């Protein structure tokens, strides 16, 4: 089927999504502990898994026994490295390049994953983009639509495609943000999408709870990934990125990934509609 009003990638920050290989220092993505089989024989789809938080989640899930489908926009080098790291953990990986704003792509990712491995147990909606603007009048219609298309429409598309394959015990984990709770004067459209994601998470959890499918979210604070250095934050802010949180530093992807593992496995069997907050100590409501 044709996509409805698909908006092409905007060129305001041509460095996005950014290459993790170019970051100095390199983000810490390797798991810190041995696996314990918490996702043994499970199959997971992780969007935005070529780098950053998504890469760390993919490797951790693989270490815990899951096969992992990796969705990403265009950073082939990063994505291939993530796939190698998954395989180094003794697991298997599938790679899917393309824009999740295309509903057809979301359907293909799910269909080919299920065709390859016969099931789908965990969906992690992590892909996202952000474009800083000091004034609301600087946000173009194309940027506004583009940010919503990537950050929230794609989550709807992925869940719609995955839903027929999710059985009792399955888990959906969405990535929201601390900006949903604290706001961000320079990320108006991005923060608005993160508010939508939290509402989507809470609403979807109630929609699926009777079928035994849990839906939760993670709201990271400032994490050292390619998103901000590649244009997601103004250059003048990068020198002190993350210093404003109580811990005084940005977090590392492998400090966030365990939150996704907890929500994906049976350890969180009595949790749905909830949000976890790996954010360096910022106290937020909810």
Automatic annotation (TrEMBL):
Coiled-coil residue windows: none
UniProt entry tagged with the keyword Oxidoreductase: yes
Keywords noted in UniProt: Oxidoreductase
Residue span of region Disordered: 1-28
Cross-referenced Gene3D superfamilies: NAD(P)-binding Rossmann-like Domain (3.40.50.720)
Keyword presence, Oxidoreductase: yes
Alphabetized CDD domains for the sequence: SDR_c1 (cd05355)
Protein name per UniProt: SDR family oxidoreductase
Organism classification: Bacteria, Pseudomonadati, Pseudomonadota, Alphaproteobacteria, Sphingomonadales
Pfam families reported for this sequence: adh_short_C2
Origin: domain of life: Bacteria
PROSITE patterns cross-referenced by the UniProt entry: ADH_SHORT
Family: Belongs to the short-chain dehydrogenases/reductases (SDR) family.
């Amino acid at each position: 089927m044709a996509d409805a009003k698909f908006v092409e990638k905007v060129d305001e920050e041509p460095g996005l999504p950014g290459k993790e290989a170019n970051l100095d220092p390199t983000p810490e993505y390797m798991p810190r502990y041995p696996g314990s089989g918490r996702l043994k024989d499970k199959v997971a789809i992780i969007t935005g898994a070529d780098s950053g938080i998504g890469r760390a989640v993919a490797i951790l899930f693989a270490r815990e026994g899951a096969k992992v489908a990796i969705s990403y926009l265009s950073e082939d080098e990063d994505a291939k490295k993530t796939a190698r790291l998954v395989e180094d953990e003794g697991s298997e990986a599938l790679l899917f390049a393309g824009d999740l704003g295309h509903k057809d792509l979301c359907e293909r990712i799910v269909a080919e994953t299920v065709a390859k491995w016969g099931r789908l147990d965990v969906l992690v909606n992590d892909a996202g983009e952000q474009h800083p603007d000091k004034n609301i009048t600087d946000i173009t219609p194309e940027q506004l639509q583009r940010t919503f298309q990537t950050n929230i429409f794609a989550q709807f598309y992925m869940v719609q495609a995955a839903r027929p394959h999710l059985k009792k015990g399955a888990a959906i984990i969405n990535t929201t943000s601390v900006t949903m709770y604290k706001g961000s004067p320079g990320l108006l459209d991005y923060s608005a999408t993160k508010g939508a994601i939290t509402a989507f998470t809470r609403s979807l959890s109630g929609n699926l709870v009777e079928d035994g499918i849990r839906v939760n979210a993670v709201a990271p604070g400032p994490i050292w990934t390619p998103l901000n250095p590649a244009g997601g934050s103004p250059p003048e802010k990068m020198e002190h990125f993350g210093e404003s949180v109580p811990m005084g530093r940005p977090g590392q992807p492998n400090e966030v990934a365990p939150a996704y593992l907890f929500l994906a496995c049976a350890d969180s069997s009595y949790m749905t509609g909830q949000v976890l907050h790996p954010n360096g100590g910022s106290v937020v409501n909810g």
